[in-house]
Design goal:
The chain has 208 residues and is an all-alpha fold. 72% of the residues lie in helices and 0% in strands.
Length: 208
């Protein structure tokens, strides 16, 4: 399999993931989402700043970026002699999309935290694992009201769930990478949680 094909796939998937959905939607409303709320361009801040409707759009489109990079982009570029059934190709596309979301080239490589986009990738890679960690997220969120804590708990459960469901050690390793990246992107949240200054989730109406 030619290295050129891998490179083109990685760049294409990165660009798909790099679409700054939250920033663009907020910009269309005359808002710089980086200057309000938590300053993050992801779905959680979009919910806070833009409300449930637009927040839901950001959430689902960010997830769609991850899913489409694996399920749509790989078959589209099969002409590059890439084997669309190869696990490595699907893993590369998914990882590149998450990195694109987290470090988008359109905003000086400052992006979101990758939770929604990772969920889309996991839907394409391992649907049972996604359902498992979604359950962990929901339980943690409703128990704590902290989105960040729920996301960290789900990330921690990701590689464990991958092995419990019997997926390959390769997928376990990649899941571990996704989990570490997600937790790393939540470093400021972890510091605020430890200091007791992290904000619980609130809607646009409550913020107003």
């Amino acid at each position: 399999m030619p290295l050129t094909g891998y490179f083109i796939l990685a760049v294409a998937a990165y660009l798909v993931g790099s679409i700054p959905t939250g920033f663009l939607v907020a910009k269309a409303k005359g808002i710089d989402i980086r200057a309000v709320g938590s300053g993050n361009i992801g779905a959680t801040n979009a919910f806070r700043v833009l409300g449930k409707g637009l927040g839901s759009f950001v959430l689902f489109f960010d997830a769609f970026k991850g899913w489409s990079a694996v399920m749509l982009l790989v078959p589209m570029i099969s002409g590059l002699n890439l084997c669309e059934d190869c696990e490595a190709v699907r893993l590369l596309a998914g990882l590149a999309a998450v990195i694109g979301h987290n470090y988008t080239c359109w905003l000086k490589f400052k992006g979101g935290k990758g939770i929604s986009t990772s969920a889309g990738v996991l839907l394409a890679w391992m649907p049972p694992v996604l359902l498992t960690i979604l359950a962990v997220w929901i339980v943690t969120f409703y128990a704590s009201k902290y989105v960040s804590m729920a996301s960290i708990a789900a990330a921690t459960a990701l590689p464990i769930s991958a092995r419990v469901w019997g997926y390959s050690w390769t997928l376990f390793g990649v899941s571990m990478c996704l989990a570490v990246l997600a937790i790393y992107k939540h470093k400021p949240n972890i510091q605020r949680l430890m200091a007791g200054t992290e904000n619980r989730f609130s809607s646009k109406k409550e913020v107003a």
